[in-house]
Write a structure and sequence with these properties.
With 376 residues, the protein is an alpha+beta fold. The chain is built from 13 helices and ten strands. It is 43% helix and 20% strand. It binds 3,4-dihydroxyphenylalanine.
Length: 376
């Protein structure tokens, strides 16, 4: 680049001023840093550096080099100090203008880059929601399907869906249900104890062995009359095999009102079974023992199925425990047994799912085997 007219003029101006004042040495004159030519060189350099900016990282470097506190433009500004007021008046605004141009270029790049990055992300994330066949579909787990169905059936009979803690005190899981510490029935259910060393049953903690604990909570909370089912998870300290798991699901049921009898219980169970199996199911009631009901009952169902050889089979199967709620249990729930009576039942939801779908290994239900689960 040649020596331009304007620069020539500028040098003469400075020369004239300095020599006119006779106050400046030649070396100081040579030291004069800032001229319009130098200013425009800095801005030219900035422009070609900006052309090479291609991402946020190189933009940051660019900004540091030109716009930063110790950048090229800051240096230009600093060197203005050495100039006369008239020179400052010309070069000052020039530098400021250049600074603003570069700043807004950098800002525009940043905005554009951000929206470009967003567009690229959107492009990458784009899916055609109408193309469902491209995805493998999930499904509701067979246990959840059955639980929902049972909840529908009982809700239609005016029952509430109840819920209670899985980590429970010894008192709610046993004592309140008429199973004191010395009672042999405690051995019927192998218990996972969380704490076992307290004298007070209200303080010891267990993983609930049965959903029956919800009976007490619900009676205490809502009193009589009451209709509820409580589906939920229970825990038993058992060895796992085809028919036993250390955790499985039960459904508890309870109805408390004036003049409740076994007829109500039988009606509710038969209705549920007919709905679940979509046909009438024969039910047999035998005496059974559960400390929280008196009389206590075992309910069997007449179960018809097709075996592995394609033969039609039928047999009585134990299905649930039930009975008329023991007066002591009503009292523990805060309900007067002289006024109210109730029935209660409890069955294995997991077992019902196995019966309904002909599943012979309980472990499949807690597995994540997709080819198994996709059948339902
Ligand atoms: N809780 C009992 C169990 O886990 C089942 C049961 C039996 C529940 C009789 C009841 C009942 O409500 O009345 O084996």
């Amino acid at each position: 680049m040649g020596f331009e007219k304007f620069d020539f003029f500028w040098y003469f101006k400075i020369l004239y001023r300095n020599f006119g004042k006779k106050s400046i040495s030649f070396s100081t004159f040579c030291n004069v840093k800032t001229s319009p030519r130098q200013v425009s060189q800095v801005f030219q350099k900035a422009q070609s550096a900006f052309a090479a900016v291609e991402d946020l990282e190189s933009l940051a470097l660019f900004e540091q080099t030109f716009l930063g506190k110790k950048g090229e433009i800051a240096l230009l500004r600093k060197s203005l100090k050495e100039l006369s007021p008239e020179e400052k008046q010309i070069l000052g605004p020039e530098i400021q203008k250049g600074f603003e141009v570069i700043s807004s270029q950098a800002e525009a790049f940043r905005t554009k880059h951000a929206s470009k990055a967003l567009m690229a992300q959107l492009e990458k994330d784009w899916i055609d929601v109408t193309k469902t066949e491209a995805f493998s579909r999930g499904a509701i787990h067979p246990m959840a399907q059955l639980q929902r169905r049972i909840e529908q059936i009982f809700t239609s009979m005016g029952f509430d869906i109840a819920d209670g803690p899985e980590v429970e005190t010894e008192w709610y899981n046993f004592d309140a249900l008429n199973v004191p510490g010395t009672h042999p029935a405690r051995d019927m259910q192998d218990t996972f104890w969380v704490t076992h060393d307290q004298k007070d049953a209200q303080k010891n903690v267990v993983l609930r062995t049965q959903t029956s604990n919800v009976q007490i909570h619900w009676m205490q909370k809502y009193g009589a009359p009451l209709r509820m089912i409580a589906p939920g998870r229970v825990y038993r300290n058992e060895d796992v095999d085809m028919t036993h798991d250390a955790t499985f699901y039960q459904v508890e049921g309870m109805m408390v009102d004036k003049h409740i009898s076994l007829a109500h219980l039988k009606g509710a169970i038969e209705t549920m079974l007919a709905e679940v199996f979509e046909k009438d199911i024969k039910v047999r009631i035998r005496p059974g023992y559960f400390p929280f009901v008196e009389p206590g009952l075992e309910v069997d169902i007449w179960f018809e199925y097709v075996d592995k050889n394609g033969q039609e089979q039928a047999q009585w199967l134990e299905f649930m425990g039930a009975g008329m709620t023991h007066p002591e249990v009503l009292r523990n729930g805060g309900i007067d047994p002289n006024i109210y009576s109730g029935f209660a039942f409890g069955f294995g939801l997991t077992r019902l799912a196995m019966l309904k779908h002909g599943i012979d290994d309980i472990r499949l239900l807690s597995s994540q085997k997709k080819d198994f689960l996709q059948q339902f």
